[in-house]
């Protein structure tokens, strides 16, 4: 499927997707949602993307579906909704996500209306900072299940920190250890620049504190 999309073989990719949707799994729904969200061989449609991600959640995918839903909610195309972003990100298992920044932490509740009211009581600066910070981490969490394959494709392994400074508009990939890592650094920089682009420009002027650092480790097993 991914190879066909990459090669521009859209007729075959869509045909394969339709076949998979006859007996769908959570993974199938995530693929379909991603194709609609990114406009990969299908006309972009964020509503359909959200619907497919929600179906994956409905099938019990707690490890990936919340990351996709949080990332879509944070994106400019998906509505830049900070409440939905935080709601879904908080539903990822603790081991499947980076901790929320202290400023973005909220009490876990199943009361959606109370949750939204709490977020709406924040300042505009705080809401926007959390949309960007948590949205970025959600996009990383959605990508991470595939990173072993990325290391194989890039031909290397290593440990990195990706630093995104929203005030300066920069993405830096800092190597901590590893070898043959230049392709991986390039891959991470591309992924994060894409994520920053999906989030869209900040709605308020960022300050120097608007920095997110995400650790990555690539291993060939």
Physical arrangement of strands within the biggest beta sheet: 2-1-3
How does the helix and strand content classify structurally?
Answer: alpha+beta
Order of helices and strands: HHHHHHHHHEEHE
Rounded average pLDDT: 89
Q: Sheet bearing the most strands, described? A: 3 strands, antiparallel
* Radius of gyration of CA atoms, rounded to a whole number: 18 Å
Shape: globular
DSSP strand content: 5-15%
Q: How many distinct beta strands?
A: 3
Helix content: 40-55%
What ranges have pLDDT less than 50 throughout 5 or more consecutive residues?
Answer: none
- What is the number of domains? 2
Helical region count? Answer: 10
* Terminal Cα span: 24 Å
Set out the fold topology:
Blueprint: H1 2-6, H2 10-20, H3 26-38, H4 46-58, H5 65-74, H6 82-89, H7 112-120, H8 124-143, H9 147-154, E1 157-165, E2 170-179, H10 182-199, E3 211-218
Antiparallel strand pairs: 1-2, 1-3
Helix pairs in contact: 3-4, 4-5, 5-6, 5-8, 6-7, 6-8, 8-10
């Amino acid at each position: 499927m991914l190879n066909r999309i990459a090669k521009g073989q859209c007729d075959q990719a869509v045909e394969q997707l339709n076949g998979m949707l006859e007996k769908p799994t959570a993974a199938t729904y995530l693929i379909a949602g991603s194709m609609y969200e990114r406009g990969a061989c299908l006309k972009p449609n964020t509503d359909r993307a959200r619907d497919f991600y929600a179906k994956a959640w409905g099938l019990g995918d707690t490890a990936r579906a919340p990351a996709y839903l949080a990332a879509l909610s944070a994106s400019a195309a998906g509505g830049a909704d900070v409440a939905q972003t935080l709601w879904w990100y908080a539903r990822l298992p603790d081991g499947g996500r980076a901790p929320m920044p202290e400023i973005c932490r909220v009490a876990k509740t199943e009361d959606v209306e109370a949750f939204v009211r709490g977020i709406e009581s924040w300042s505009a600066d705080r809401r926007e900072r959390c949309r960007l910070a948590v949205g970025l981490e959600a996009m990383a969490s959605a990508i991470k299940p595939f990173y072993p394959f990325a290391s194989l494709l890039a031909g290397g392994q290593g440990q990195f920190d990706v630093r995104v400074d929203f005030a300066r508009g920069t993405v830096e990939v800092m190597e901590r250890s590893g070898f043959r890592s230049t392709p991986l650094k390039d891959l991470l920089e591309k992924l994060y620049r894409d994520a920053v682009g999906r989030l869209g420009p900040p709605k308020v002027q960022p300050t120097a504190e608007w920095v997110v650092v995400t650790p990555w480790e690539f291993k060939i097993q």
